[in-house]
Amino acid sequence: MTTKPHPPLMKKHSQTDLVSRLKTRKILGVGGEDDDGEVHRSKISQMLGNEIKFAVREPVGLRLWILFSAVVFTVMALMALAFPNQLYEVVFDQEQTATSVSIRLYGGAILSLSLIMWNGLYTAEKVIIQWTLLSEACYFAIQFLGLYQ
């Protein structure tokens, strides 16, 4: 008596079986529409909610203003670092008699603000954009108060 060898057992791959995946997703409660019409891809997104519906449209000129500010701050910083005496003469209409270290320090501070502006330009985080605009407003307030003393 010869026995025929049995064919190898085929293992069912539930990841590739679409019906099995659909049943699993229905049991977990994901993949279908909820009451608001949202389709959740995972249980975590179902629990946390969708952040896209809370997204607020940005004002039209916001990115343009941040770009303009970043360019102006960068140019002023590089001028203060590279040509402090000439910048002093242009701003105050008189020749500088003291050392140029203070103007170079000013240039370093402005350069750091310009880096904040460049970071605010390329981010989508609302909090970073808010802090970018707040730092710019603080700079202008300090500049205004220092100018009229």
Please give a structural write-up.
This protein has a domain at 60-148. Helices cover 60% and strands 0% of the residues. It has helices at residues 18-28, 43-48, 62-82, 84-92, 101-121, 126-147. Helix 5 packs antiparallel against helix 6 (126-147). The longest helix has 22 residues, at 126-147.
Give the key terms.
149 residues; 6 helices; TP53I11; mainly alpha; single chain
The percent range for strand residues is under 5%
By DSSP (H or I, 4+ residues per run), the number of helices equals 6
Low-confidence stretches: none
Largest pleated sheet: none
Structural class: mainly alpha
| Amino- and carboxy-terminal Cα gap | 112 Å
Average pLDDT rating: 78
Number of strands: 0
| CA-based shape | elongated
Query: If you compute it from the alpha carbons, what radius of gyration comes out, rounded to the nearest whole angstrom?
Result: 31 Å
Query: Strand-and-helix sequence, N→C?
Result: HHHHHH
Helicity range of the residues? Answer: 55-70%
Oligomer description: single chain
